[in-house]
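Q: Hi! First time doing this. I have a protein sequence and I read that you can turn it into a structure. Is that right? Here it is:
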Amino acid sequence: MAAIGTACAAALLAGGAGATVAAADQPAAPASHTATPPHKARITVTSNKHSVKAKETVRLTGSATGLKDGEKLTVQHYKNGKWTTLHSSTTVRKHLYSTDVKLNEKGTWKLRVVHGGTHSATTTVKVS
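A: Yes, that's right. Below is the predicted 3D structure, encoded as C-alpha cells:
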C-alpha cells in the first residue's frame, strides 16, 4: 500500500511540474481590455476685448481638446496672489467653448479657464 501511495504522490508531483513547465513555454496571451492612459486635456483661451469699463462683459472663447462634450469649464482670476473661481462657467461643445464674464472691479484682470487640474494660459483684460 505504501508503495502505491508513494507512486501516486510521485505521479501527481510530476504532473504538476509538467503543467508548470508547459505554462511557462506558452506565449503570454495578449492583454485585452487594458486601460489606456487618457489623453492629456488642453485648454486655450482668447478674450474678445482687452480693455473694458467696469461692469462690462468680455467673452472668453477657446478650444478644449481631450475633454468630452458636456464637461464643465470654470473661469478663474488671479487676485491677491491666488487663483479665485468666478461665477462664470460653461460646457464643452465639439471641443469648443464660449462664456461671458462680467468684470465689476477696476484693475488688471488675469483670467484663465479651468477643468480639474487642467487650465489654459492667462488672458489679461484692463478694466477702467
